Every structure is written in C-alpha cells, then in structure tokens.
Amino acid sequence: MKRQKERGEDWEDDGRTIVNMNIEGMPGYRRELDVPLGCAPQKASRREMPSARETRMIILASMKWAFLYTMGFALILVLFILFCVKVWFA
Fold first, then answer.
1. Residue from 39, 37, 32 nearest 16 by CA
2. Which of 57, 64, 80, 88 places its Cα 20 to 30 Å from the Cα of 48?
3. Residue 90 lies in a domain
C-alpha cells in the first residue's frame, strides 16, 4: 500500500489525449469532438450517387461473378458425385 501512495502523488494530468475514444457508433459519441485541434470543421459534402448506367453496370458485374461462383461450385458437386458413383462405390 505504501508504494501505491507514493506513485499516485507524482502523477498529474496534463490534458493531452493519447487515444481518442470517441468512436462512431458507440454510446456517447459526439461528432464535434472528431475535429482535430487547429482545423476548422468542414461542411458535410454532398454524396455523389452513381448514375443509372453505372448502377446497371455494377449490378450486372456482381451477377456475373455470382453466376461464375455458382457454376464453379456446381461443377465441383457434379464431379464429386461422378467420383462417388464411378470410383468410390464401384
């Protein structure tokens, strides 16, 4: 106990932040604290939405990859069944 009392007396808070614990999504989050010191807060920029053509391209690309993966797994399943019927159970 004596050692803890000696250490506690020397400690003094200098007000610096070591780690910012103001995390978005956590209880008690405050957006105004996220601005670094010395920087003026910026206006929220308007989010750009993709055009209709870009949206169609994104959907088609994701469908193409989903189809590719599905066909890959289907091929593996068919080859496994053929292996079981022709080699393993023969």
1. 37
2. 64
3. yes
